[in-house]
Design brief:
The protein is of the alpha+beta class. The protein has two domains: 13-153, 2-Layer Sandwich (60s Ribosomal Protein L30, Chain: A), CATH 3.30.1330; 169-337, PurM-like C-terminal domain (Phosphoribosyl-aminoimidazole Synthetase, Chain A, domain 2, Alpha-Beta Complex). The protein is 35% helix and 23% strand. The strands form three sheets. It has a seven-stranded mixed sheet, sandwiched between helices. The protein has a four-stranded mixed sheet with strand order 3-6-4-5. Strands 1-2 form a two-stranded antiparallel ribbon. The structure holds adenosine-5'-diphosphate (ADP) and magnesium ion (MG).
Length: 350
C-alpha cells in the first residue's frame, strides 16, 4: 500500500555491523547539557547533577505492535521514540536522552533502516533529546525495536500513579479514540488493497485519525504547561492502552474510586463520524481504544481555577473513596462499573 519511493536495496551484509551503526548514527547531534559522552564508546556518560533521573523502556515487535504493510518505516521510528517519551512526560519529567536498539532480519535493506532512523532523528530533534546509544543485532524474521528513554525532574516534582486523593478532579489532555479509529481505517484499506492493488486508498476524510495512529505526539507541551500554571498533579499516567485501564491503574495504585462522566470525554468530530460509519460506540472506543498517548492526571480541587478554560485540559470526573468503586456515569445518568479491557482484546471483537 505504501509506495516504495526508494527502489535501491543495499543488503545489510554489504556493510557489516560496525559500518551500519556508524552510517545510521553519524548525524545525531548532542544538545543536552547532561550528555557528557554519546555514541561511540562502550557506554554513554550522563551527568544530572542534583536532578532525579527517570528511565523507561518499551519494546516494539513486528506483527505484534506494528504492521509494516501500512506503517511507513519513518513513522515507525518516530512512533518508537514517542511512546517512550510519553512515559517520561507522564512522570512530570523532561526527556533528555534515548537509546535505540534494533534486531533486524536480512529481509531489510540498508535503505529501510535509513528510513527508520530518519523517523528517529526527526523525533529526537523535535523533542530535543539526544540519541546516546543502542545496540544492533540480527533477527531471524521480523523487526524488533527497543527504545529506552531517560529524563530529568527536580526532586519532589515527580508525579506517580499513586498520589490521587478522594475529591481530586480527573483531567485528560487532548481527545481520545483517534488512534484506534485510525487503525480501523488503515486495516480496512489494507483489505481493500489485497483485493485490488491498483486501488490507492483515499484517506482524505480521515487525516486526523490516521495521523493519530501513525504519527502520535507525546505531550511534552503539557509538562511545560503544568509548570507554567503552577499545577502539580497528584497523580498521572499516559494513555497507551485506553482510558478505562489507565483510570483503573490510578485508582488501584492510589487506593481511591472514581466517577467518570461519559458526556465529558473529549472526542474529535472525526472520531465521532468514523465511529458512526463503522457502527461502533464512540465511548467504548475512548474507554478501550489504545495508543492515544494523551496524559491522564488528577489534580486537587484547589487547582481547578488554574486550569479552567484551558482547551488542552478537560475535567472528566472526580475521585471518590475506594469503597465507592470505579464507575462511568452515562449520558442517561446510570452508573456502570469500569472494567479493564486492553485494546488488544477489543481488537479481537471488532
Ligand atoms: P558493543 O559491542 O559494546 O555493544 P557496539 O559496537 O554495539 O558496541 O556499539 C558502538 C556504539 O554505537 C555504542 O556507543 C552504541 O551505544 C552505539 N550503537 C550501537 N547500535 C546502535 C543503534 N542501533 N542506534 C544507536 N546507537 C547504537
Ligand atoms: Mg552492541
Amino acid at each position: 500500500m505504501i509506495e516504495d519511493k526508494n527502489p535501491q536495496r543495499t543488503p545489510l551484509s554489504e556493510l557489516g555491523e560496525f559500518k551500519l551503526i556508524e552510517h545510521l548514527t553519524e548525524h545525531f547531534k548532542v544538545t543536552q547539557k547532561s550528555t557528557i559522552k554519546s555514541i561511540g564508546d562502550d557506554a554513554a556518560v550522563l551527568n544530572f547533577e542534583k536532578k532525579q533521573v527517570v528511565v523507561s523502556t518499551d519494546l516494539l515487535v513486528e506483527g505484534v505492535h506494528f504492521d509494516l504493510s501500512y506503517v511507513p518505516l519513518k513513522h515507525l521510528g518516530y512512533k518508537a521514540i514517542m511512546v517512550n517519551l510519553s512515559d517520561i512526560y507522564a512522570m512530570n519529567a523532561m526527556a533528555t536522552q534515548v537509546t535505540v536498539s534494533i534486531a533486524v532480519s536480512n529481509r531489510f535493506p540498508l535503505e529501510a533502516l535509513e528510513e527508520l532512523y530518519a523517523g528517529v532523528a526527526t523525533a529526537a530533534k523535535m523533542y530535543g533529546v539526544d540519541v546516546v546509544g543502542g545496540d544492533t543485532t540480527s533477527s531471524t524474521s521480523g523487526l524488533i525495536i527497543s527504545v529506552t528513554a531517560i529524563g530529568e525532574v527536580e526532586k519532589d516534582n515527580e508525579v506517580l500513579r499513586s498520589g490521587a486523593k478522594p475529591n481530586d478532579l480527573l483531567v485528560v489532555t487532548g481527545d481520545l479514540g483517534g488512534a484506534y479509529m485510525g487503525l480501523q481505517v488503515l486495516e480496512r484499506e489494507k483489505e481493500v488493497f489485497k483485493v485490488n492493488p491498483n486501488n490507492q486508498p483515499d484517506l482524505s476524510m480521515y487525516t486526523y485519525i490516521v495521523e493519530r495512529q501513525l504519527k502520535p505526539e507525546a505531550r511534552k507541551d503539557i509538562v511545560e504547561l503544568l509548570k507554567e500554571l503552577k499545577v502539580k498533579p497528584t497523580s498521572m499516567i499516559d494513555i497507551s492502552d485506553g482510558l478505562s485501564s489507565e483510570v483503573m491503574h490510578l485508582c488501584k495504585q492510589s487506593k481511591v474510586g472514581v466517577d467518570v462522566y461519559e458526556n465529558k470525554i473529549p472526542l474529535d468530530p472525526q472520531v465521532i463520524s468514523t465511529c458512526e460509519e463503522f457502527n461502533i460506540d464512540s465511548t467504548t472506543i475512548a474507554l478501550n481504544g489504545g495508543e492515544d498517548y494523551e496524559l491522564l492526571m488528577t489534580i486537587s480541587q484547589e487547582d481547578f481555577p488554574k486550569i479552567k478554560g484551558n482547551t488542552n485540559l478537560t475535567v472528566i470526573g472526580y475521585m471518590t473513596d475506594e469503597d465507592r468503586g470505579m464507575h462511568l456515569v452515562t449520558r442517561a445518568e446510570t452508573k456502570i462499573p469500569i472494567i479493564a479491557k486492553g485494546w488488544n482484546s477489543l481488537k479481537d471483537q471488532v
